[in-house]
Write a structure and sequence with these properties.
The protein has three domains: 1-28 and 219-313, Rossmann fold, CATH 3.40.50.300; 31-115, no CATH class; 135-208, no CATH class. Helix content is 32%, strand content 20%. It has helices at 18-29, 34-44, 139-149, 154-165, 204-218, 235-252, 263-273, 299-307; strands at residues 7-11, 47-49, 55-58, 73-77, 86-90, 99-101, 104-106, 114-115, 129-132, 169-174, 186-190, 197-198, 223-226, 255-259, 282-286, 295-297.
Length: 313
């Protein structure tokens, strides 16, 4: 992909590689951090839960041909004119211990073709990068993230984002008595009602916005990756969602990559392209499985496509 902007929307048919691009950016930005390798595999369902409470993550489907051998490898790289960061993943013969040798990280490959990385969740990444799936985040994960930003100015951004879906929301807080891993983990205060309401009572759209907004705050100085961004959100909300993402990305120095199948989502992106901003800040990248490069659409082309109902997906 070339000519990327601050906000980039990836479009294309099913199985064209949109999510794989997001995963590649995640692995590149994390410099091959074993925790993020595990995250990608878990999201794909590439794991085996063993009887002794251990989990093996199967790596063969990350490689072309879905097979493992001593020659299996792939490289992810990005050049911005000044430097070319890259990361290479390869299968090599080694002993069964995790080693570090300069920039080289080795993870033991098990007989079943899996890995069992024991990486502390607190181990920092080289660059902030957040990945929001179509199913959004778990309540447990969002509660942890909320604990870090509560009572800070960033809390206001999250509340403003929720108001795009329901303007009556005034405040949000963890639900102290809930053991839910989903929307039951939070409650909100709404106008004209004294008793807090579980956030799950507002439908999937609120939970989606909460996941995106909190992840946006955590991506400061890095990357926000959102798969099927409009999942659970009505098309009338998307104009403000794009505005929030663009404004926050500019303020917090974030590069945003999102995917969609929706024409309404594309039209909403065209709305913010009509507003004053630096040229080249917003792009659409149409990905095809049978082509080595995507088709890139600039702000002007995005606006023209929306105005004249030109198909860009």
């Amino acid at each position: 992909m070339t000519g990327l902007g601050r906000v980039n929307l990836l479009v294309g048919k099913n199985n064209s590689g949109k999510t794989s691009v997001l995963e590649a950016i995640l692995l590149l930005a994390s410099e091959g951090h074993p925790r993020e390798v595990r995250t990608v595999l878990a999201r794909r369902g590439e794991f085996l839960n063993l009887d002794d409470d251990k989990t093996d993550y199967l790596v063969e489907h990350l490689f072309s041909g879905h097979e493992l051998s001593a020659k299996s490898k792939f490289t992810i790289s990005s050049g911005n004119g000044k430097q070319t960061p890259s990361i290479r993943f390869s299968i090599v013969e080694s002993d069964l211990e995790i080693k570090q040798n300069g920039a080289t990280k080795r993870i033991a490959l098990l007989e079943n073709g899996g890995i069992r990385p024991k990486i502390p969740l607190s181990l920092p990444l080289p660059h902030p990068v957040e990945f929001v799936t179509p199913f959004s985040s778990t309540g447990e994960n969002l509660l942890y993230m909320w604990g870090e930003l509560a009572l800070t100015p960033d809390e206001d951004l999250v509340v403003r984002a929720l108001r795009f879906v329901d303007p009556s929301i005034e405040r949000i807080a963890p639900h102290p008595q809930s053991r839910s891993v989903g929307p039951g983990a939070f409650k909100v205060k709404i106008k004209g009602q004294d008793k807090p309401v579980p956030i799950g009572s507002f439908g999937d759209g609120i939970w989606r916005m909460l996941s995106i907004a909190i992840s946006l705050v955590y991506a400061k100085g890095g990357y926000l990756l959102v798969d099927e961004i409009d999942t659970g959100l009505h098309y009338t909300v998307m104009d403000n969602v794009w505005r929030m993402l663009y404004q926050a990305a500019k303020e917090f120095d974030i590069q945003v990559f999102a995917t969609t199948h929706s024409l309404d989502c594309v039209r909403s992106l065209a709305v913010i392209c009509e507003e004053d901003r630096s040229p080249g800040e917003v792009t659409i990248q149409r990905i095809s499985a049978d082509k080595p490069e995507p088709v890139r659409y600039t702000e002007g082309q995005i606006k023209a496509a929306a105005e004249h109902d030109i198909e860009v997906r």
